[in-house]
Amino acid sequence: MCLGLFILYCSLIFTGATHFNGGTIGWAPIDPYDNSSSVKITVTQSYSWTYPYIQCANNVPISTSGFNGANTNLTCVVDCSTDGGYSTATIDILTDCTSTSSSLKMMTSERSKNITLSSGAHFYLAHRGSAWVPLNDPAQQGLEWSIVTYIDLRKRSDGFINTSPVARFVSPQYAIVNKTIQINIPVSDANPGDDVRCRWSTYTTGYRRRKRSDKEEHIKHRSNVHLYSEVASDTEFIHIRKKRACGGGCGTSC
């Protein structure tokens, strides 16, 4: 399915460049019917980079001169007491170049790695950083970012371990101030018949989780929490985010 997203930016536009352009983290059980006390899963990281500023090679980004200290690990951010032993067998963020585009100045990289966790583990795993692409209007820089996935190895009511849905999304997406754009987000799910939805996320002050509307509370198996805001939908539709009235000009309140 492909969900349409309409965003009306009041006074927001990307400017400048950075070496990291976002991506996704996904996972899947190697055997979804595994009944043992430990479960092996495959974690796949897919990222986008500024090219040729970051070189197309293995072990991105440390294979580029000047980035030899840029390696770090994916970290547990929520429910770490039930991480199934991940804290003792962490995964680094290194990936391998898969494609480049000189015209778009973009390079993509990906790597999959198998890890073994205790059955019943459930926790949020993230790649986090700062210095996201600076914004022009209103001017902001040094913005923090995070790419998060929710790993849940508890058996579903229908007897097997869920496989997380996948969203393929080219980032970053650019928008002109006060112009409406449509962003298509292709998503898929390996489990036949599963209801895949996208949603707007909302932040609760002082708490790391993202709230879900009451309408969505019945959904047990959640998709990857993506770096980009998405739309809640029962079926394919387009959500309109209306511009707020801004007295005396449109500023940071929009």
Describe this structure in words.
This protein has one domain (2-239). 0% of the residues lie in helices and 34% in strands. The chain has no helices and 13 strands. Strands 9-10-1-13 form a four-stranded mixed sheet, with no helix packed on it. The protein has a four-stranded antiparallel sheet with strand order 2-3-6-5, with no helix packed on it. Strands 4-7-8 form a three-stranded antiparallel sheet, with no helix packed on it. A hairpin with a 6-residue loop joins strand 11 (202-203) and strand 12 (210-211). Mean pLDDT is 76; it is low at 1-17 and 209-254.
In short:
The protein is mostly beta strands and 254 residues long.
Give a topology summary.
Layout: E1 2-8, E2 20-29, E3 38-50, E4 75-78, E5 96-101, E6 106-118, E7 122-129, E8 145-152, E9 166-167, E10 180-188, E11 202-203, E12 210-211, E13 238-239
Parallel strand pairs: 1-13
Antiparallel strand pairs: 1-10, 2-3, 3-6, 4-7, 5-6, 7-8, 9-10, 11-12
Main attributes?
four-stranded antiparallel beta sheet, disordered N terminus, 254 residues
State mean pLDDT (0 to 100 scale).
76
Number of helices: 0
Briefly note the structural class of the backbone: mainly beta
Radius of gyration of CA atoms, rounded to a whole number:
19 Å
- The succession of helices and strands, N to C, reads EEEEEEEEEEEEE
Number of discrete domains: 1
